[in-house]
Each structure stands twice: as C-alpha cells, then as structure tokens.
Amino acid sequence: MESLIKNEEFIQSIRGTCLFSGDLEYEQERALYNAMIDKHPAMIVKCEDVADVITTVNYAREEGLLLAVRCGGHNGAGFGSCDGGVLLDLKHLDGRWIDPETGIVKVEGGCTWGDVDHLCHAFGRAVPSGIISTTGVGGLTLGGGHGYLTRKFGLTIDNLVEAEVVLANGELVVANENKNADLFWAIRGGGGNFGVVTSFTFQSREVKEIYGGVSFFELERSAEILDWYLPMIENAEEDLYGFYAFLRVPPAPPFPEHLHTKNLCGIVWCYTGNLQRGEQRLHELMQESNPVFTHLGAMPFPAIQTMFDALYPKGHQWYWRGDFFTEITPQAREEFVKWGSQVPTIHSTMHIYPINGAVQHKKPQDTAFSHREAKYSVVYVGVDPDPANKDLITDWCKNYHEACHPYSSGGAYLNFMMEEGEDRIRSTYRANYDKLVEVKRKYDPQNLFRVNQNIKP
Ligand SMILES: Cc1cc2nc3c(=O)[nH]c(=O)nc-3n(C[C@H](O)[C@H](O)[C@H](O)COP(=O)(O)OP(=O)(O)OC[C@H]3O[C@@H](n4cnc5c(N)ncnc54)[C@H](O)[C@@H]3O)c2cc1C
Fold first, then answer.
1. Residue among 57, 59, 159 nearest 104 (CA)
2. Is a pLDDT exceeding 80 seen at residue 5?
3. CATH 3.30.465.10 at 96-206, yes or no
C-alpha cells in the first residue's frame, strides 16, 4: 500500500507537504484530538490550496485508495483520519474574509471557530457555532452546529449561505439555494458525505459582547434545578441561552477550594441581547435558583467561546454519545440525575443543550438536519487524560446513554455519535434519509467519501 501511495509524480504536483511514516512530522500530524483512536494513514497530504485538494481527490479515486478528510480533527469517532489510506488535511486552508457592510463571512474549509471568531469580533459580529474555539468549522457545520447563539440565530447551517465543494470526480462546484440546491440541502446536516468543502460562506450576526458565565448547585438539588431549568429555558426569550450540566469541579481558579473535585450540577449562561438587560435577567435567575457558586459578567463573545478550551486540550481519551429529546419526562429525569451524579472524572460531563427557539423556525425537511422539533440535544461525555481510565469513562458513558435513550426522540446529533451502526444514522435522518441517498448517488456514486457517518449510495 505504501509504495503505491509514495508516488513521486503525485508528490511533485502538490504545493503542500506529503508525509509518510518515518517522517519527522508524521506522528504529530496523524494524532487525533481523541487519543482513544489511533489511526495510521499511509500518506498525509497537507493541502495548501484548492488545487491540492482536487489533485488529492483525483489521486485517491483513480488509485482506489481510502480517503479521509480532516478539518479540526475533533470528531469523536475519529473520522478525521483513516488506517492505510490518504488523509487529506485542510489545516492550511485557513483564509477568511468579511464584508463589513453585509457581515457576509467567507472562510476556507480548514478554519477553526477560533479563526472565525477572531475575524468577526473585530467587526462586532459572530457566526453561531459551538462552545469550544478549537473545533473545526468543517465537521461542526456539516453536522448542523449548535452552541451559545443557537436559540437566537439557529444552527450553524441556518447561517450558511454558500459553500464551494470539490466533488468525488474532482470538479469544484458552488452550492447555494440556487446552484446545486440539492447538494446545498444535503451538506446542511449530511456530514462529509458529498465532497470536500473548501469554503463556507456565512451570514454573521451582530454580537460583540455577551453577559454570561456559570452557576453551580449542590448535587442534592440537581433534580429540583432540572425541574426549574427545563420549563424556564423552553419559554425563555431567544436572547437567553443556558445549557445544563453534571460535572466535577476542576481544582483550579476561579472555583473556590472547598468545591474542588466535588460532583455538582450547573448551568452555563450566555445572554446575547442588551448587556444591562442580561445582567438584570441573570440576577433574577440567580435569585430564583440560589446557586452555591456563580462566575458571571459581561465579556467579549470570543471569551465565552474559549472559556473551556484549556480544560479540553487535544490528546485526552474521549468516549461520547448523544440523544435528542422533545421532552424530558419525570422518568427520564430520574435517569439523568442517577447517572449524572456519578460523573467519574474531572473532564467527564453531561450537557443538555437547548435547541428550541430559532432552530424551530425551519422545518425538518428544509435541510438534511432532521430533528427540528427536538428541544434538547444531549451529550454524555466520558473524558480523561489517562489511558488507564479508558474503560471507566466508556462504561459510564454507555450506561448513561442506555438508561436515557429510551426516553429520547431517537437518533442523535450527528457530531455526538461514535461508530454506532447504520440504524443510528437512519434514525438521525428519519424521513430525510432517502433523499440523502439520492443526492449521494448523484454526487458520490462510488462512495469515495465514506470515512464519516456514512450514507451509502
Ligand atoms: C471539545 C469539543 C466540543 C464540542 N462542542 C460542540 C458544540 O458545542 N456544538 C457542536 O455542534 N459540536 C460540538 N462538538 C462536536 C463537533 O462538532 C464534532 O466533533 C465535529 O465532527 C468536529 O469537526 P472537526 O472539523 O473539528 O472534525 P474532523 O475530525 O476534522 O472532521 C469531522 C468529520 O467532518 C468531515 N469534514 C471536516 N471538514 C470537512 C470539509 N471541509 N469538507 C468535507 N468534510 C469535512 C471529516 O471528513 C469527518 O468526517 C464538539 C467537539 C469537541 C471535541
């Protein structure tokens, strides 16, 4: 396999770098964010431009090689690499531009959200994304994308206006509402199944500073706080965002020493409207809920986007699963509390992300992302730096998921899934699945792009 890949003519035609086992940078570049997954591609192509992407796609197709595509490398299931094939790395495609008048932002397919936030913030703007700045724009967007701005401005894909895509046949096409509209529909939730997206164009939103932070509560109050939180966030104004979490308090500032390593529950807040109103609103919510610890204030939007980056560097062991919920019933709540009270390590957690509000301004069939009526996207996350704790975090996560899943609406957010089989993929897309297969047949009939939550042609 290696000799087939080490093709001088191909290497000479690439402006970027091709890495092979034994090369100085190979080990570092092949490493995934999730250290539980250890893959050895035969060749890593660090593409420099769109021409490199086209050449690499053509080469992999013509030689019949397995092809993986990587942006931020954050995928939990490790789809940002492969064993024995070609890894097309987009990291160096990180150009980004903004039109200050319209707020239209164009970013290349290898950018991280930190890149986008940095550019947009200078113009008092932001693109709705996730909650960690090191995540790649590519994977997060293609799966849907939800985070602090979701209740107000919808999913990341609801703010996508155009993409440039290198198809399996090597052709570069534009996809938007008017051109290749079927492809544009499919990439808004359909993952990396349809081609390599070399640029994403978003409508950014006016968000400069937010009022937010965290509030923590004693574990004994977790059921009561959940009962208070759920109806509150379901009925809240779209300016208010807060996700519920079970956690273990990190032994570091700003947390007081007496709380260090304690199991608690908490809410992470982000108010995107008028700052004074945000302060007043959060003050009211704190009086209603009476937390044991708060760390709240006005901050630039990139500050909340990077608040948890240091806690989650590359190289930890990860195992996670997800679910959508249209309702969290009292029986489900019992399971949430039971397993949430047993968070096994400092980095492990469970988050209930609200995805009501603006997400529901679109219908399930409007984009490939189908679960539009779900009010919550839940993630059960086992994380630890120590490989010795791999089983501990994996078992806790699986048990948690298995206990809560029967109460869910089926399927899961694509970006919170491991390799969990075709049924899970089908129940994630539901009625949109058949159309996705049709689009896949049209744009990638040989399934060249299959290192992903795969939709078989
Ligand atoms: C710490 C952490 C926090 C997270 N928080 C959130 C959150 O708040 N909200 C949220 O929605 N998600 C969140 N996620 C999940 C995240 O969306 C997924 O892990 C996603 O797959 C990461 O995208 P990536 O580009 O970094 O990953 P990669 O591993 O590089 O890619 C993931 C998949 O997308 C494909 N892909 C990536 N870029 C392209 C491209 N340009 N063209 C074609 N295919 C491409 C890859 O082939 C692969 O199949 C989080 C993940 C982590 C690890």
1. 159
2. no
3. yes
